[in-house]
Amino acid sequence: MNLAQHPLFVSLTPVFLLIALGYLAGRRGWIRDTAVKDLSNLVFLILIPALLFRTMASVHLEELDLRPVLAYFPVVLLVFFTVVAWRGFSRESVVVAMAGVFSNMVMIGITLAELAYGKPALVTMLTLVSVHAFILLSVGSVVLELVVAREARERGETTPPLWATLGSVIKGTVIHPIPLPILCGLLYAQTGWALPVVVDKPLQLLGSAFGPIALVLVGVSLARTPLAGHWRPALGVSLVKNLLLPLLVGLSAWGLGITGLPLTVMVVAAALPVGANVFLFAQRYDTAQALTTASMGLSTVLALFTLSVVMTAMAWLNPLAG
Fold first, then answer.
1. Where are the transmembrane segments (predicted)?
2. What is the pLDDT of residue 306?
3. CA pair distance 306, 312, nearest whole angstrom
4. Which of 62, 105, 138, 199 is least enclosed by beta carbons within 10 angstroms?
């Protein structure tokens, strides 16, 4: 089999070509800053909910394997809290720790999983996606609020109770364009009803548009990412995210007896570059914004090579996934 026909090449090439096209469009000014937010809203508020709902509307709970969640997130949280402890309890350390564990599962992972491993891979990927934002955004928000509260106490200011903050975080992460359509799709699937054609076809068309537009937007964002002055710390974050985390997740999954396609999807999900939600944290809490954007950009560029290495290794170590 020549290189052009190799499954890894066939699945990764479209992903990175679309990202490169978005990068070119961003650098040339074909997609202006004012349009990026509108395109992001199109992806997150219309296209991704359509894809998630339609995919999960055919998944029955008895067929859903929750072992990937049990293997993935304890490792992610262990790495997160280890980085926070190592760097010190501060806003910057929490945001940097989040960058080291928060994967770009939505804009890159979903499309890559389907291209590389087919629709069966989406069940495992979407199982992780369904709780990925909920768990990490909740934990990150609570820890950051604790940091902010400590800073306020040191200044002699009063702060709201932690339970109020926790309630607000949970509400915001459940009523969200990613977890909500997944939960709604799962609930609909339990009725045993098939989606009517007049509903299913528009959802299929919207879901098909998600992948290309999302990947082009990744490239546009990459074109606007400053790396100067932040190479060394960004490289450290990127290596933790792109290589260390998938290694630990793979060992955890193997320890729980997970094999075949679910194991490969979990490791690939962990090897994805830093997700955009981390920058929103940095922006909201006004800390490490330049380092966060540099880490996002560098980890995405490095993913051209690290994802190839991880996927090749998994094809060799876990041939059942093929």
1. 6-26, 38-57, 69-86, 93-113, 125-148, 169-189, 209-227, 239-257, 263-282, 294-317
2. 93
3. 10
4. 62
